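Before the break, one more example. Copy the sequence into your notebook; we will annotate it together after we see the structure.
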Amino acid sequence: MIEILAQTAPATGGFDTALIAGFALFGLALVLAALELVVPSAGAITALCALCIVAGVVSFFVHSMLWGLASLAFALGGAPFAIGYGLRLWSTTPLARRAVLSTELEATRSPGVPPVGARGTALTDMRPVGRVEIDGRTLEAIAEGGFIEAGSPLAVAEGSTAASLRVRAIART
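Here is what the structure looks like once it is written out:
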């Protein structure tokens, strides 16, 4: 067994095509991984990258057991680091800023959305959606607590947007 692991080159001596193919496939995998960061491909480039890595490992095993085990350990051990570093790099690209909704965008309020804590009245039974009156305007809202009876006082809750006004019941005064 040790003799098999100690084998570093084929009997013909020097590099052979399997070793060169292994390095070429690993290099192609690096290029594809970098390309995946800037080209949206729905995972197609990532699948090709993984296929290149698998083919590279197989090529190294064809060359020798030692090269195959070393490349397998490199691929399995380096993959988490490469993925983490790639995601960190990708998150700073303009594509990532367009693809991922930022917290600043979520926190901005649209004009016309009542402020958090604004008080109003339920115009209809809210199960959990219904109509409310806040600041003299009739709006459609979602009740946070489930059911709110018509005529009950309520307040605008956090997390409200122009698309979904969230309200919660408050005690009658």
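The longest strand covers residues 137-143. Strands lie at 119-122, 129-134, 137-143, 153-156, 165-169. Try to locate both features in your own notes.
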